[in-house]
Each structure stands twice: as C-alpha cells, then as structure tokens.
C-alpha cells in the first residue's frame, strides 16, 4: 500500500511540474493582441500627414523667364504680389535668346547679381523701354563669374512725347557700383535706345549706362539726370543711343552734376555717334548740350573711351564739369 501511495504522489508531482510552463507561456506571450495594441504609437489623425509646416521660400533667386522684376526697399514683385525680402538678389534667365522682361529698382540698398541675362527692348513701341532702370536707391551690381549679360533699351516717339532709355538707367536719386571677381570676371554690355535718324532730334541722347532722355508732353526731368556711377570690376561695354545726329554718351550723360569713378575692371565706352558730321557726345562724360558730370575719376583698371567730342569729358558745347 505504501508503494501504491508513493507512486500516486510521484505521479501528482510530475503533473504539477508541467502545469506552470503552460500558464507562463500564456501570461507572457508577446503575440497577445491586447498587449500589442497597448504599446503601439497612436495612429495619425486623418489627413495629418498631408499638412506640411509653412516655410518662407523667398531667397532672392529670381528667373527673368517668369516675368519682369520690380525690387523695392522692402521686397520684390514678379507678377501681382510683393514678396517681402531684404537680402541679396541673384537674377538669371533660363529662357533661350533675349527677353523683353525687364528689371526695375524703386528704392533701397541692394546687392544684385546678374547671371547670363539678355534683355532686349529695342523694338518696344509703348511704355518705358528700359532694360534695367534704377529709379532710386543704391545698387551694387555684381556680374557672376564668366557670365555674359546684355541690356538693350529702346526709343519711343508718339509725336508729342518721346523717351530714349539708357541700357542701364541710373536715376538722379540713385547710385550704381559695378563689380565682379578679378579671376573670372563677368561681362556687361549696355546699349542706349534708338538708332539712325529720328524725329526725336537732339533729345535722343540716352547713355549706355547713365541718363535716359525725355522730351515733349509729359516731360519728366528725372529721366534726364544721372546718379553717381562707380566701376570696380568686370568687363563693361557701354554704347550710347545712335538716334538722330547727336547720340548719347557711352557712360554718363544727364543735366546734373554727378560723379563717374573707375578704379578697376575693363571698361569700353563709346558714344552713340562717332562720325564727323554728328554733334558730339563723350565716351565717358556728357552728351551734346548737357551740363555734364561734376567729376570723372580714373584710378585703376583698363579704360578705352571713344567719343564724337572728348573721349573722356564734356560733350560738344559743354564742359565735363
């Protein structure tokens, strides 16, 4: 009997030794659905992942292929809405050939880099045919390394009012500094608006870089004056308007006293008319009958100036200043 009891006890112990393993496996199993649901990250709300955080993408990199550009003291407009921005600008052109979209600065202090821009308004028949106008403000114009940039303006005459625009117009309340790297200089070509004989007469005297010219009804003195111009680097070729018998100065012009300074770069400035039968404009300085520049200072760089009057100085009947 004792042997039978011992056998029963051993059998019971063996059964109990198997029971905890099964219970433990059930209690701690990682496959339990409720346990997985309790530890998972909360699911995103419907549409939450499709709502990006707003980012200000204004960086001053603009493409003329997208339209004309107006830069103010507080931002820029390309289209109908002004974008607030006060940093440096880089203006490029991804479209092939030339464009009739232009650049206007209305105020403020800016550094603007041109990178292979080609603006041609020589055929424009209405509005203000100015490729690059600095109405007021202070602009440092950088020419991107090895870039080639062209600014050609136009001449409009409707019989009572006419305007001949400088390729790069620098208004009387503006200053311009042109610069580029010394190792890989960029190039700028600027041409004043108008060619051949024209009813615009002796008012067709827009510079390549400098003053524009207006006459007749709607006459506005702001176009006929020029601000200070400084060239410190780059390859700069400027040719005045070729309209009428007068033509414009390569760089300068205007009926006010301002300054031209060249202290670096390579500068080629040519008056619009160079033949002996034309009335003179300087390569760098004034056009025919204009009051002239106050000072012209050359301290460095390479300069070639060709005029129908002085190469550097005053136009016919005027002094340099």
Write the layout of secondary structure elements.
Layout: H1 2-28, H2 33-39, E1 61-63, E2 69-71, E3 75-77, E4 82-84, E5 89-92, E6 103-105, E7 109-115, E8 118-120, E9 132-143, E10 148-152, E11 155-157, E12 161-164, E13 168-180, E14 187-191, E15 209-210, E16 213-216, E17 228-231, E18 235-239, E19 251-252, E20 259-270, E21 284-285, E22 295-306, E23 312-313
Parallel strand pairs: 1-5, 2-6, 5-7, 6-9, 7-9, 8-10, 9-13, 10-14, 13-15, 13-17, 14-18, 15-19, 17-20, 18-20, 19-21, 20-22, 21-23
Antiparallel strand pairs: 2-3, 3-4, 11-12, 12-16
**Major pleated sheet:** 20 strands, mixed
Distance between the termini: 140 Å
Mean pLDDT: 79
Based on Cα principal axes, name the global outline.
Answer: globular
**DSSP summary: helix tally:** 2
Number of strands: 23
Q: From N to C, what is the helix and strand string?
A: HHEEEEEEEEEEEEEEEEEEEEEEE
Structural class: mainly beta
Helical content (DSSP H or I, runs of 4+): 10-25%
Low-confidence stretches: 19-41, 44-57
Note the quaternary state here. single chain
For the CA atoms, what is the radius of gyration? 36 Å
Characteristic key phrases:
mainly beta; globular
Structure summary:
The chain has 321 residues and is mainly beta.
Would you mind describing this structure in some detail?
- The chain has helices spanning 2-28, 33-39, and strands at residues 61-63, 69-71, 75-77, 82-84, 89-92, 103-105, 109-115, 118-120, 132-143, 148-152, 155-157, 161-164, 168-180, 187-191, 209-210, 213-216, 228-231, 235-239, 251-252, 259-270, 284-285, 295-306, 312-313.
- By secondary structure, it is mainly β.
- The strands form 2 sheets. It has a 20-stranded mixed sheet that branches.
- It is globular and about 50 Å long.
- The termini are far apart.
